[in-house]
Inverse folding.
């Protein structure tokens, strides 16, 4: 697979267009205006960062649930949106409240999952570096319309 940067950027603008519309109509406290300050990173570098997620997540066409839900198309999707996956009560509540996985919200979640979502089943310390988060989100964005 060789996803170029321009391809990721294109996917991003499509995604932001779509999520922007979703978020504007949402009353969820955590759903913030898409595109406010978040800058996508480098999808190629993000593919390497994603190795830290692979113990629990698959992404791409045909990705399946492992410990965590498949992340294909996660950007712009409702939190807890994979049918049949057993989310934590914390995630199910956020889902009902209308949380959408904008790049900004994923960025906050990945910084420290347990702070963003107390009670989450995602046992992952978090990605401390801004660049790692921006890169892995850019990588996820390349799978957003599959
Ligand atoms: C130890 C296993 C584990 C690791 C490592 C992990 N996750 Fe997760 N992830 C989970 C679980 C379990 C959930 C479901 C959480 C819940 O229900 O509270 C989840 C949920 C998510 C969600 C929300 C999905 C949805 O459908 O609502 C995103 C986005 C996500 N993870 C991204 C990542 C990324 C990116 C990484 C790597 C930087 C990562 N995760 C690393 C286990 C993991």
């Amino acid at each position: 697979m060789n996803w170029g940067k321009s391809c990721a950027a294109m996917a991003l603008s499509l995604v932001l267009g779509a999520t922007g519309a979703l978020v504007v109509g949402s009353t969820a406290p955590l759903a913030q205006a898409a595109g406010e300050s978040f800058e996508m990173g480098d999808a190629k570098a993000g593919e390497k960062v994603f190795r830290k997620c692979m113990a629990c997540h698959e992404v791409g066409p045909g990705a399946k649930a492992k410990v965590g839900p498949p992340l294909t198309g996660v950007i712009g999707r409702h939190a807890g949106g994979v049918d049949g996956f057993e989310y934590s009560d914390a995630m199910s509540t956020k889902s009902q409240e209308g949380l959408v996985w904008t790049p900004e919200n994923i960025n906050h979640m990945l910084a420290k999952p347990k702070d963003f979502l107390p009670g989450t089943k995602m046992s992952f310390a978090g990605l401390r570096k801004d660049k790692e988060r921006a890169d892995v989100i850019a990588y996820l964005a390349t799978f957003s319309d599959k």
The chain has one domain: 5-24+32-141. Residues 52-53, 55-57, 67-69, 71, 74, 79-82, 87-88, 90-91, 101, 106, 110, 120-124, 127, 136 surround heme C (CB under 6 Å). DSSP finds six helices and no strands in the chain. The two ends are 14 Å apart (CA to CA).
